[in-house]
Amino acid sequence: MPEPLRLGLAGLGTVGIGVVKIVQRHGALIAARAGRPVSIVAVTARDRRRNRGADISAYAWEDDPVRLATRRDIDVLVEVIGGSDGPARAATEAALASGKDVVTANKALLALHGQGLAERAEAAGRTIRFEAAVAGGIPVMKALTEGMAANAVGRVVGVMNGTCNYILTRMESAGLSYATVFEEARSLGYLEADPTLDVGGIDAGHKLALLAAVAFGTRVHFEQVAIEGIERVAIEDIRLAADMGYRVKLLGVAQMTGRGLEQRMSPCLVPADSPLGQLSGGTNLVMIEGDSVGQIVLRGAGAGEGPTASAVMADVVDLARGIRVPAFGLPARLLAEAPPAVQPAPAPYYLRTTLVDKPGALAKVAAALGDAGVSIDRMRQYRHEAPEAPVLIVTHKTTRDALDHALAAFAATGVVVGTPVALRIEQV
Ligand code: HSE
Question: Domain check: are 250 and 292 in the same one?
Fold first, then answer.
């Protein structure tokens, strides 16, 4: 019988227990597929006595994640503690220093410290794998590093935070405000302990930074992701966008342009009948464009015990098979330093504004757009009783600079009430 691959499991929350269950349920299947058994040797978590709904009595217990990570009887640290620093980082660094591979679901750790950790891993002849960190159960890292290994990637687009997608689709289907659905999501336990990670776009931004690094062979730079959350998405915009044939999504886009690497995570409109527009509830979807393969669409569960543990175990099985892909798909020293794009690529925009209902008001707004070089594709004024008229405009493709110029000029027209809403329409 070949030697087992021995795991030290750091973290016994939802994902950690999912890993325990898969190892226990599918031991024979994994051994057959990997050519050797995979066993959990030792575990660590904050509270030893907590009932976790899985039998962990056969595993050695460590109170200290660093001690677990440096045990001589483990080959791989499985880090599912979470958090960009603290015990997760300490255990990961200790594991690499003592010659272990690391499998992690920790997007924050990799997004903030990925380059340094990849370099440490390679110096030690080890690797860090993180399939579970991006879009949960969807094998998106494998798609990029294996299935698309011979493609130049042009663009990666996706919905990578299930909680935000749940909130936005529920707002539309029930006609409820953001605040009401946010509270609903909280009571259902969908939100991270710090909800801004979800609704502020940070969690999804971490994932996008990791995807961009692997897709374009660049150093991971989370701080270069332009992030806007969903907190200010109004039910009116969801309704009116639907009326124009669009849905609002918290959309991540990474693309290499002539002006540098563009990475942004923000509420955007997508055509309602596109795969992204059709995505409802807590599901994730990642679309990757490769020069040879064309467009690939991957869709599935982005979170949860089974899906996330499934992705962790896919990396573990690779290691058991002796497959050691570098953390970001290329040796760390070859990862390029791409300049960040200062402006997003031109796109059509959705504009919602409120006008004083008097002769010439619409003409003034149209002139402000025209003067800024922004061309109108469609325009709709809604029936109203108040002295103020809600107006929707869909522009042709324009730069954000030109649009901001026009929006600044709106204020000087004397007919615009309040601040207009501008949402990018992403062509997907
Ligand atoms: N909170 C995330 C989501 C899952 O809602 O998709 C963990 O990244």
Answer: yes
Determine the distance separating the centroid of ligand 1 and the alpha carbon of 360, expressed in angstroms.
48
Q: Is 302 in the pocket of ligand 1 (CB under 6 A)?
A: yes
Among this protein's residues, is 207 annotated catalytic?
yes
Domain count, the chain: 3
Q: What is the pLDDT of residue 352?
A: 96
Q: Is 19 exposed, middle or buried (0-12, 13-18, 19+ CB in 10 A)?
A: buried
Q: Is residue 315 part of a domain?
A: no
Within a domain: residue 314? no
120/189 same-domain check:
no
Burial level of 18, CB count in 10 A (0-12/13-18/19+)? buried
| Residue 363 Cα to ligand 1 middle (Å) | 45
Q: Which ligand 1 atom sits nearest the alpha carbon of residue 203?
A: 8
Whole-angstrom Cα distance, residue 101 to residue 124? 9
- Residues 411, 266: one domain? no
Nearest in space to 427 (alpha carbons), one of 287, 302, 228, 296: 287
| C-beta 263 within 6 A of ligand 1 | no
Which residue is it, tokens 């959350």? Answer: 229
Torsion of CA 232, 134, 259, 337, to 10 degrees: 130
Does the model's pTM come out above 0.90? yes
Kindly state whether residues 146 and 292 are assigned to the same domain. yes
d(CA 41, CA 209): 33
Q: What is the mean pLDDT of residues 258-278?
A: 96
Residue of minimum CA distance from atom 4 in ligand 1: 303
Task: State the DSSP string of 300-331.
Answer: EE-SSHHHHHHHHHHHHHHHHTT----TTSS-
Q: Mind listing the pLDDT tens digit for each residue in 120-175?
A: 999 999 999 999 999 999 999 999 999 999 999 999 999 999 999 999 999 999 99
Burial class (CB within 10 angstroms; exposed 0-12, middle 13-18, buried 19+) of 237: buried
